[in-house]
TrEMBL record:
Start and stop residues of the PPR repeats: 365-399, 466-500, 501-536
Protein name: DYW domain-containing protein
Superkingdom of origin: Eukaryota
Span of domain DYW: 688-761
Signal sequence segment: none
Species, as recorded: Solanum commersonii (Commerson's wild potato)
One Pfam entry name: E_motif
UniProt GO MF annotations: RNA binding; zinc ion binding
PANTHER family for the chain: PENTATRICOPEPTIDE REPEAT-CONTAINING PROTEIN (PTHR47926), TETRATRICOPEPTIDE-LIKE HELICAL DOMAIN-CONTAINING PROTEIN-RELATED (PTHR47926:SF342)
Source taxonomy: Eukaryota, Viridiplantae, Streptophyta, Embryophyta, Tracheophyta
Family, similarity comment: Belongs to the PPR family. PCMP-H subfamily.
Keywords: Repeat
GO aspect biological process, one term: RNA modification
Amino acid sequence: MSSLTFCSLSSTVNGNLLKPVHRRKCIYSYNKVSVLKLVAARQLLDEIAKRTRGSVADLYVTECVDRADMVMESNGNSDVTDELLGESMFDCASNYMDEEYVIDQLRYCSSEGSFELGKLYHALMIKTGIWFDKFVATALLNMYAKCGEMASAEMIFGTLSYIDVASCNSMICGYVSNGMESEAFAYFVKMGDILDIVSNHYTYSILLSACGSVQVGKQLHAQIVKLDFMSLTVVGNSALTMYINFGMIEEAVNLFEGLANKNHISWTAYISGLYRQKAFYKALTQFCLMRKNNTEPNEYTYSVALSCAASAEYHDYGCALHAQVIKNGMIPKVFVGTAIIEMYSKCAELGNARKQLKEMGRVASCASWNAVITGLVHNGEVGSGLEMFRKMLNNDIACDEYTCSITLKACSLLPSLEVCRQVHSWVVKGMFGVNLHVASSLIETYAQCGNLEDAEKVFYRTSEPDGVKFNAMIKAYSQYGNPMNAIFLFEKMVENGILPTSFTFLAVISACSHCGLVQQGKELFESMTRDYGISPEENHYSCMLSRSGQLENALEFINKLPIEPKAPIWRPFLAGCRFHGSLEMAEMAASKILEHDPGDASVYVTLSNMYVEAGKVRDALKQRELMKSKSVQKEPGCSWLEVNAKIHRFFSGDTRHIDTPKLYSRLDNLMQKIQNKTSRELGKVTKEKCLFHSERLAVCFGLLNLPKGTTIRVFKNIRICLDCHITMKHISKITNREIIIRDNYRFHHFKQGCCSCGDFW
C-alpha cells in the first residue's frame, strides 16, 4: 500500500491512532500509524508488508483497553484483572514492547494525564521485565507524579535500585505540580543530605517556580550564582519569572539585563512583569527591542503587548500590533484573538471587537466571548451585552464564573429584575452559585434591581460567606436605609475572623450617614484607622458629613481634614445645607464645589431652588442666567421601570408614550385624592413645578400595567425631589402599593405612607 493510500483511509486521521479509552483519551502511536477502529486497524496491518513492533503493540494494547471498557461498563467493576482482559492479549502486547516504546507511551500519559492508561502500561512493564530499566522506571515515576498520584510515585521511588538526579527531579516536580511546595523543598534537602545526589540546573529551575517567599527565592538565586547555573537560559528565565511573580521589578530588570542568552521566553516574562506593574509604555518599548534583537515574539508575547496597548488605550499601536499578528498568521490563535478583542473593547472600538470574534469562529473561547460582553457592558451597551450572552449560549460555548459575573453586572446596570432572575436560574443550573464571586454578584444585582429580599436569600443561603459577600450585603443595607442590619453584619463579619476592608467601612459608615447615626458613624470611622490600620480616603470623609443638622460640626470636620477638601466632600455638605435651609452655608459650599467642578449643574439648581424658597427670586434667576452663560446644562430627569420584560422610560412632562392620556388621567386622579386628604404638606409653587416629574409618570404607568399587589420598582437618574418624595408616600397609602424608587443616591421604599429613609436623605 502506498503512503498516499494509507493517509487517505477514512479510518485514519493524520496517521494517529484515535481509539477512545478512559475519559476519552486517545492512544498516541510511536511510529505514527494510528486508526479509529480496531477492525480497521487489523485490515490496515494485514496490508502492510512490514509490521513494526510498535504498531502491533498498539493494536493489542488498544484491544486490552477496549475490553477493559466493556467490562467496566457491564459490571461497574473498576478492578480489571488480567483474567478479565484476557491473558493472551497481555502476552501478545508484551511480546512487542521495548524500552523506547514504553518510555514514549508513558510520556504521552504524563502530558495528557491518562492515569488509567498509564496503569495498564505499568502492568505490561511488570509482565515483560522492562520495569527494571532505570530510564523506564524514571518515566513511570514521572507519569504517576504528573497524574497527581504522589503516593504511587513515592512507592515507585522506594523500589528503585538506582537513584539519580533525574528520578529525584521527577519527585520534586511532582510535588510542585500538585501544590505540595513544602514537600518539594524537604525532598530537595533530603536529596543532598541523605541521598548524596548533586542537584543540577533543572532542579533549581523547578524550585524557583515553587518559592513561597522572597527570602527562599533569593537563597536559591545565590546558590545558582555560586554553581554558575545563571549562564543557562532556562535557569535565568525561572529566576526572572520568580522575581516578577513577587512584584520585584527592579531585581527583575537587573537580572534580565544580565542574561547572556535571551530567548522569547525571557522577553515574554520580562514584558509580562512590566505589564503587571502597569508600566505599559516601557513594556511596549521592550517589545520593540525584542523584535530589533531578532527574537520573534510568539502568541503569548503578542497577547501581552496587545493587553498593554489596551490598558494604556494606545489605539494606533494596538492596530499596528493587529496588523503584525495578521502578517505572522497568528489570528487563529485563541490567546491572540482574545487579546485583540480586549484591545478594541477598551478603546471603545466595539465594531472591530465583534468583527474579530466573528472571524475567530469556533476557535473563539469562553474568554473571547467574555471580552466582547465586557466591552459592551463597560461602554454602556448593556442590552447588546445581554444579547451577546444569549448568542454565546446558543452557540454552545462553555461559560465560566466570569461570564456569570459580567452578565449579572449588565442586569444591575439595566436594571432588569426579570432578566436577573433568568440569569440566576441559569447560574443554578450550571452550578456556578457555589462560586463566591458569582454569589456576591447575585447579591449586588438583586439589590440594584430593587429586590432586597432576594439579595438576603442569596446571602443567607451561602454556606460560608466571605468578605466580598459581606461587603455586598452591607452595601445593600446601606443603600436601602437599614443601618442597624448593616452594623450587625459588620460585627458578625469581624466575629467570623474576616478582616473588614476600606470598602467595608465605606459601606457601613455610609449606612450611618444615610440615617443620621452620627455617633455610630464617628466610632466606626475612628476604628478604621485605630483598629485596622486603614487610612481614610476622600469617600470616607464625605460619608461623615450626614444630614443630621450638625452643620457647624460638619464644617469644622472639613476644615480639619488632612487632605484638601474637593467637590466630592463639599457636595454632601451642600445637600445638608439644602435639607436644613442654611442658605449662607450653602452659598459657601457651592463656591467651593464650583472651584473644582465649574460644570456641575446641580449646584446652580440647588442654589436657585433655595433662593426661591427664601423669596429671593432675582438671585434664583441669576443662577439660571449663569448656567446659560457658562453653557452648563442640567441633566434631564429620567425614570424607567420594567413591565412585561420591557423597559419603559419617561421624562418630565413626557407626552411621547403611547399611554400618555391614561397616565395623565391617572396622575390627575391621584393628585386630587392627595389634595382632598391634606394640602398642608404640598405648597402650590412646588406642586405646579413638580406635577409631571418623570417618577410620577413611571409610577402611574406601573399602577396601570402591573398586576394588583405587585411592587412597583422605578429607577431615576437624578435625586428625587422633596415634593415627589412626599407625593410617593401618599400614593403608596392611597393605592395600598409598595413603591421602590432608586435615585442616583439611594433607595426609597414607600409603604403605607412611610419611606424607609425616615424622611432623612
